[in-house]
Specification:
The complex is a heterodimer of chains A (164) and B (77). Chain A has 164 residues and is mostly helical. Helix content of chain A is 49%, strand content 0%. Chain A starts with 6 loop residues before the first helix and ends in a 40-residue tail after the last helix. Classes of the chains: A mainly alpha (164), B alpha+beta (77).
């Protein structure tokens, strides 16, 4: 055998160790037998397949062979966990108390749109309250206060002078 | 005759995931016996070897005869 074990060999050893860990106490001699057999398999990929099979064997043995690890308690654990998760989910849903996302206003893109402004600038100008686009002419009249009540988003901003 | 797990796997075509649970069951039913064999070369671990018990051997022969009889019956039918 090589001095430095390959990745497959290392993985095989890890799997064999895991298989041994799965079979504690009485059947440990079987786990040891599986692990020792690995040292007699020269081919690394064959050793890996062997170790993988050993791991499956240990799982099978643990689940079906010994009553302490019979599948019934395993299913019971799964069912209990599922029921618990369902209860948590229901509790969280109830706690949310019907909170839903507020309806988004229907914004008429064409209302505040000015054709003389570049698309880059137009995209940046937005109402800080409602997020609606602001007519770009507001920049020319900073002294005037902008109506941000957002009551009627479809109507044009009243103070803006006509450009043309 | 004592056999190793890997040899049994190669001869029967059973993978270790199938072979070992079968060996465990046979052992539990008293049809198989096992022991540790000291390694022939130093540096290697001892190896588990298996063979059928007298009961296991009798059952295997019985099964073989039944299989042969069933095959003959199938051919004649």
């Amino acid at each position: 055998m090589n001095a430095a074990p390959s990745r497959s060999r290392r993985l095989a050893l890890t799997l064999a160790r895991h298989a041994a860990w799965m079979l504690p106490s009485a059947p440990s001699s079987w786990a040891q037998a599986m692990r020792h057999e690995l040292d007699y398999i020269a081919d690394d990929s064959a050793a890996l397949r062997w170790a993988f099979g050993c791991m499956l064997a240990s799982y099978k043995a643990r689940l079906t062979h010994w009553p302490r690890f019979s599948p019934r308690p395993a299913w019971r654990h799964v069912a209990t966990s599922g029921a618990l998760m369902l209860l948590i989910g229901l509790a969280l849903q109830e706690r949310a108390g019907g909170q839903t996302e507020p309806p988004r206003p229907d914004f008429d893109e064409t209302t505040c749109d000015l054709p003389d402004w570049s698309p880059e600038l137009r995209a940046r100008l937005r109402c800080s309250t409602c997020g609606a686009k602001i007519a770009a002419d507001f920049i020319d009249h900073p002294a005037q206060k902008l109506d941000t009540s957002c009551t009627d988003r479809t109507s044009p901003i009243p103070f803006l002078p006509k450009r043309r | 005759m004592w056999r190793h797990g890997y040899d049994l796997s190669k001869e029967t075509g059973l993978k270790s995931g199938t072979l070992y649970p079968s060996l465990m069951r046979l052992s539990e039913q008293g049809l198989l016996e096992s022991r540790w064999q000291e390694p022939e070369r130093s540096g290697l671990p001892p190896r588990h070897v298996y063979r059928l018990t007298a009961t296991g051997l009798a059952l295997a022969r019985e099964q073989e005869l039944e299989a042969v009889a069933a095959e003959r019956a199938g051919v004649l039918a």
